[in-house]
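Sharing a chain and its predicted structure for anyone who wants a worked example. Both blocks are below, sequence first, C-alpha cells second.
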Amino acid sequence: AAVNPAVVVLAFTAASYANGFAREHVLADHLASLTATRSVTAAQAILAALQHLGVKKLALGTPYPESISAQGRAYWEAAGLRVVGYKRLADVENIYDETEERAYRLAREADAPDADAVLLSGTGLPTVGVLELLERDLGKPVISSNQASLWLALRMAGVREPIAGFGRLLTTA
C-alpha cells in the first residue's frame, strides 16, 4: 500500500490451476481486496493475451508435476480453448533452477501443427531469452506466464507502447 501500485499481479499460475477456472474471479477479487488496487492473476493475463491474439487452439508446455499439469490443461479447456498439443517438462526439482534451453525444448515438444500458439506456463520458468527465437522457429506466437503478466499489467496501467525483445505480444497494439 505504501507504494500505491497501479496494478498487482499474482505471479503464480499453478494457484489458478488448483483453484479452477470457475473460481478464478474469487481469487482475483480476494487479491484486489487485500491490496486495495486493481489486481490480476497470471492465468487471467494469459487468457487476455490469448484472446488478444485470437488463439482458439493451444499447445501447452508445463514444468509442473503431472497432477498440476492436468489441472492446467483442464483450466484452459474450461476457459474455452482447445488444447491440441501438450508436454510436461520431466525431472523438474525446482522450477527456478531450470534453463532457457529446457524451456525452449519444452515449447518445441509441446507444439502441434494446428496450434494457434504455444503457452509456456509457470512464472518461475525462464523464458524471456527464448520467446522471440521460438516464435521465429515455430512461426506462431509463444506466450509465457511472465510475458503475459507484464503485457496485461502495462495495459492496465495505461502503457501501450511496444516493447521489443519479449515476443510479438508486447509489440502488438
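Comments welcome. The chain has seven helices and six strands.
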